[in-house]
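Checked the freezer inventory, then went back to the computational side. Two predictions to log before the end of the day. The first one is the construct we discussed on Monday; recording sequence and tokens without edits.
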Amino acid sequence: MTETTTIRPIADADLGTIVELNQDALEGVGPLDVDSAAALVDMAHQALVMEDDGDIAGFVITLPTDAPYDSSRYRWFEDRLEDYVYLDRIVVSADHRRKGVASRLYDAIEGDLPIALEVYDHNEASLAFHDGRGFRKVGELTEDGPTNIMMVRPAA
């Protein structure tokens, strides 16, 4: 990371880059196009990018309670939790991995509410990362594909 690293809200001009980063990370997140990315940003609790020397190094999108989001994983938490934010996705560009981008983005979103998210059961690196940040398994959800490990981190 350089001295010109900033975290800021996602702007409309960022959507194309966010979609590209997202599509390069489909092993851990669902697909997006520009319209679905814009819809997520519009309903977001937080939608942030980290810029490093003008490049988008990564982004994170969280959703509030009671969002109009059509996701079985989000609904799983809606059925079980009251006040929380749902971490829909965090993506770090390949060029910026292992440089603290994800940790800085998590630092930016952690606050007064618990954070809920899911991790594919085969994603051992992500499970270890989240365990190290204080997330704990609260259940599992298996649909047509891999099992999702449902995790929650208490409020900071």
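The second is the one RB wanted added to the comparison set:
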Amino acid sequence: MTDVTAASALPDLLLESAAGKDSELRTSTANSSLPDSLSSGFTPESPGRRAGPVERRDLGSLLPARMAHWLGEHVDALAAAILEEIQNSVPQFRLDTTTNHGIRRAVGQCVERALAAAKPDENWNLLFRTFGRIEFEEGRSLDFLQTAYGIGGRAAWQHISAGGRALGLTTDVLCRCADAIFAYVEEISALSIEGYAVAQNHSAAALSRHRRRLLELLVADTPATGRIVAEHATSAHWDLPPDVAVVVLEPRTVHPGIGIPDLPGEILAAFDGGQPWLLTANPARDMRDLAGKLGDWRVAVGPTVPLASAASSLARARQTMRLLKRGVIADTAVVWCADHLSTLCLLADEVLLEELCARALAPLAGLTPKRRARLCDTLLTWLQSRGSAPEIAAILKVHPQTVRYRLHQLTDLFGERLDNADDRLDMEIALRAEHLLAAAEPRRPVGLA
């Protein structure tokens, strides 16, 4: 048993590292769903075998004592034969020190199980999950590893069958041994698939966390230092651009089935809050490319600003979305903040605007709503055009005499304020704001008690 123990010994550092990593991955992905094939005992199909749950057939229950003794004596030769065959048949599969130790451990543990008819322990499962994890971390698919497992199984069978025939084992016993060997191959393949999938889920979750944190840093009230932002950008696999724009999204309906669109990697996205938003360095290109995927969403694009001012783009995009939902800004496929700057300025602080309107339009406070509306239309047209009565009448589609009558009323109400440039500016701002808000929703005139 000395050879078996030596062959199955994996360096403590490797096993401890694998155990720590496995625990970390499993904890971080505890709520992540693995493919159904893993949870149901998936096994890769092999020629002549039916895919299905692994059916363990331990060699210890199949081998006569003399064959088990022979296997224990030849464990080193068996491991060497498997390693040589893998290296010759799959040169792309890198047999580094860790992998060599791992395969020798696997062979040794298979022999231990054969001699003692023992069930696999957690270290056995951990070892092959670790192989799957390593393949993912090295940026490879599982193809080479699975091929290596299959070749190793065939090499083991050739070695064991030759020894069995030399010892005079019957064909029936040898066939059952072959079945057990390839059951081992299926078992370790399924474990490696599981380790690969868990690492994959962990990597995706970690990348998502880094990107979310980077977004938070970029739009924080107190901007992070350039060094901290750069470090998080590296972890998020995102190249820092000089300028960015924030895009705010809002579902057009309350239907719970609305889907989150697939986004290219250069766009950062936050979909886990109350109002989803994106950050892009090229809004014109990305909005064009995403137009077909965002049909179920209202889209408000903030101004393009230096990266350090991303928070201001987010604030303007959110303000645009609020006015869009209220109907102040027309709802189109994509609403660009830059097309509505005067509206955004006018309505940036509606409390302050209320006070301005109350003061600027105070002479109209005692009028009936109908009379007030007519005088407001006439006053705004006069302020914008400073035209004659016939010119204003043409714009309002009324008789010039009607305009003259209204202008006399306005003169009586406002007096010399109509001759003051600052007062006229306040009046025009107030009247434009009233016009915008009145077009969006029925409400009392701004500034009226």
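For RB: The beta strands are 243-251, 268-270, 277-280, 297-301, 305-306, 335-336. Residues 241-346 form one domain. Let me know if you want it refolded.
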